[in-house]
Amino acid sequence: ALVQTHLAGIASKLPAILAIVGGAIVLHLVGLIDDRRPLGPAPKFIAQFAVAIFIAGPVGIRALQVLPLPLSFAATVLWIVVITNAFNFLDNMDGLSAGVAAIAAAIFAVTAARSGQVFVPAMACAVVGGLLGFLVYNFSPATIFMGDAGSLPLGFLMSVLTILTTFYDPSKNLTPLGVIVPVVVLAVPLYDVISVVIHRIRAGQNPLRGDWRHFSHRLVKRGMTPRGAVLTIYLATAATGLPAIILPTVDWPIAVLLLL
Question: What is the C-alpha to C-alpha distance for residues 194 and 189, in angstroms, rounded to an integer?
């Protein structure tokens, strides 16, 4: 009886599910090829933009839909590409990208459930379950590594989760502050990718070439073990993400305090 209640909803979401899975498979295959024989940044960016344009265009999954269509479309494409690369950049230590994504996806599951959604929490829980099973073998000392074959589709799925989650809905007493929830929950991956790119540009280097300037590497340089650095970043992700669950439902003074 419980399943029958949701059959119509499942059927309505099937095209979106197939599109999301298809986009993840495309990025997985591109990443798999890159892991076997490095492609360079151009083919990977082409694949990312192609998938993002497909999701925001024909599929119709777009962020900030209160904006005019061209702006919403551009914001969605940019967000998908940025988050995809943020988790790709974050995959620089055993268990780091998978663990951060599991924490963030769990928070998005709770946030979506609080707003009355069903599809997004189910999708988020599926992501969390897959990541926890993977972390058994990926956490230090790892016996399985993610590579671009894992980090690219993971970042893509995380970006789509944030777009599908309802953060602002006046009918459910969710304030406009909800639109910044994804930025707060994903603050650590965003900080890592932005800081690394800025460091590389200031050093006159290719911003897409790997180095040892990541957040995790800087923690290790300050005396932490790699495992300690990963656990610290888990804690930082939880610390920024957990307050975001109530962010859309609180008044401005409390919201400002949470953000600070």
Answer: 9
3-state secondary structure of 58: coil
* Most confident residue range from 111-125, 201-215, 224-238: 224-238
Q: Cα(189)–Cα(151) distance, rounded to whole angstroms?
A: 12
For 9-13, 104-108, 166-170, which range has the lowest pLDDT when averaged over its residues? 166-170
Distances, alpha carbon 44 to alpha carbons 17, 76, 143, in Å: 23, 18, 26
- Residue 5: count other Cβ atoms within 10 Å of its Cβ: 9
CA dihedral (48, 51, 57, 60) positive or negative: negative
pLDDT for the residue numbered 242: 86
142: CB partners within 8 A, 6+ apart: 94, 95
Phi/psi of residue 169, each to 5°?
Answer: -155, 100
State how far the Cα of 195 lies from the Cα of 14, in Å rounded to an integer. Answer: 38
pTM as predicted: 0.89
Name the percent of the chain lying above pLDDT 70. Answer: 96
